[in-house]
Amino acid sequence: AQTVTQSQPEMSVQEAETVTLSCTYDTSESDYYLFWYKQPPSRQMILVIRQEAYKQQNATENRFSVNFQKAAKSFSLKISDSQLGDAAMYFCAYRSVNAGGTSYGKLTFGQGTILTVHP
Amino acid sequence: NAGVTQTPKFQVLKTGQSMTLQCAQDMNHNSMYWYRQDPGMGLRLIYYSASEGTTDKGEVPNGYNVSRLNKREFSLRLESAAPSQTSVYFCASSVLGEAHYEQYFGPGTRLTVT
Quick one: closest CA in B to A111, which residue? Predict the structure, then answer.
């Protein structure tokens, strides 16, 4: 079974600065998807960025980018030019693409990192 | 287009009471999921329905039952609530067979069992 670990329960950053959130995972599969979700105080889960394992190029979405290290099974999220609205809980998640596997289609989440943005 | 809706938003139950959490999606998705969120543990999958007519256990199914009523609706039932089921419950949906598609989440139900 896959596992996802976020070792930073809390992080903080000054407005306009850059912060990196860490995520590691364990899997025996060669192809899969990784996601970062944001959960603000409203509780709504919002997709921030996704990465397919067979793509070597790191995904970027505006101020959000990832550092995907497949061999190290590491998937960190970098937030540049942090804004007050970035304050939230961030979850890393894994999704199998193996149609025959028991975990197919399901998301496995890490424990989450609470990000505080200071003005 | 409301996306994924959940009712109720909040609920307080006494130990032993039963209740059903309702979930509906209007995006024509095949797959639907129920997660629970507990502090320090992220979201954990309770049950899922890959397509209409099928349901499967997730990571933490004990104490729950589900019904995929039709393509739109997927309900979660607690037959005899226990304090350990105090949690925030999320329903999600996605396209079947396309792992790169995101799961869309409902707003969650905060359940307290006393």
Answer: B42
Q: Give the span between the Cα atoms of B3 and A16, in whole angstroms.
A: 33
Nearest-CA residue of chain B relative to A38?
B105
> How do beta strands B109-113 and B10-13 pair?
parallel
Tell me the shortest Cα–Cα distance from B2 to chain A, in angstroms. 13
* pLDDT (tens place) for every residue of chain A, 119 residues total: 789 999 999 999 999 999 999 999 999 988 889 999 999 999 999 999 999 998 889 999 999 999 999 999 999 999 999 999 999 999 999 988 766 555 567 889 999 999 999 99
Q: Looking at beta carbons, which residues of chain B come within 8 Å of A52? A: 100
Q: Match 């989450």 to its residue by tokens.
A: A112
Tokens of A99: 């149609």
Q: How far is A33 from chain B (nearest CA, A)?
A: 6
Give the bridge partners for A7, in sequence order.
none
